[in-house]
Write a structure and sequence with these properties.
The chain is α+β, with helices and mostly antiparallel strands. It is built from 3 helices and 13 strands. The relative contact order is 0.14.
Length: 215
């Protein structure tokens, strides 16, 4: 049973016919309950395909949660950082139609903001393939600082493992290395970089440096 706690103009809480009223982050909303078909399965083929795509992107994004939580901190006014990251990658990086869904890793977005990013950043494996080496050229202006901090994210598609770090390396350093998770040694990695200001208020757009092939 639904209740209108603040009069006829207040938000609905509870079930009302095929609607459910609730509140999230002090924002009232209504959602429609799904229809069930005669064979007991929920939704039309198109609805099922949409739901499976939603599930696919949700599960793919899980290992990236620590990074997108920082990368989308300025885009979470009426949604969580993870929901903001989900929304943009659902639209831009997910290709195909269920059941043949995949991710276009060139279009993946792990952070979004107005802080100037890197210039001519490059990634490669070390000679012993146990570290990932990153270099870039100096660039900064009035909207950035030499003390901006690196966000490095690497991903292996086969194992679905994410590695990397946030902070500890400055824009001014021009190079760094990541000691790889032993499970990632000898495997190809998709590499993403971004920057966050020292006070944590500004973030750069993430940049895809490509897939570094296994040695």
């Amino acid at each position: 049973m639904a209740k209108i706690r603040n009069g006829i103009f207040g938000p609905i809480q509870g079930k009302l016919g095929n609607l459910v009223g609730a509140t999230w982050k002090n924002i009232p909303y209504l959602r429609v309950l799904p229809n069930k078909t005669e064979n007991g399965k929920t939704g039309t083929p198109a609805q099922i395909a949409c739901r499976e795509k939603f599930k696919f992107v949700t599960e793919w994004l899980v290992p990236f949660h620590p990074y997108v939580t920082v990368g989308f901190k300025n885009h979470a006014n009426e949604k969580t950082e993870i929901n903001a990251a989900f929304s943009i990658n659902y639209k831009l990086a997910t290709v195909g139609v269920y059941p043949d869904l995949s991710i276009d890793y060139r279009k993946v977005v792990l952070s979004k903001g107005y802080l100037p990013g890197f210039f001519n950043a490059k990634a490669q494996f070390s000679a012993n393939a146990k570290e990932l080496e990153l270099t870039w050229e100096q660039n900064y202006n009035d909207d950035s600082s030499l003390d901006d901090l690196l966000i490095l994210t690497v991903y292996n598609r086969e194992l679905k493992i994410v590695d990397g770090f946030i902070g500890g390396v400055r824009r001014a350093d021009l190079k760094c290395s990541l000691k790889l998770n032993p499970k990632l040694i000898g495997r190809s990695l998709d590499v993403y970089v971004s920057l966050i200001s020292l006070n944590g208020k500004k973030v750069a757009n993430s940049e895809y440096l490509g897939r570094v092939a296994a040695i």
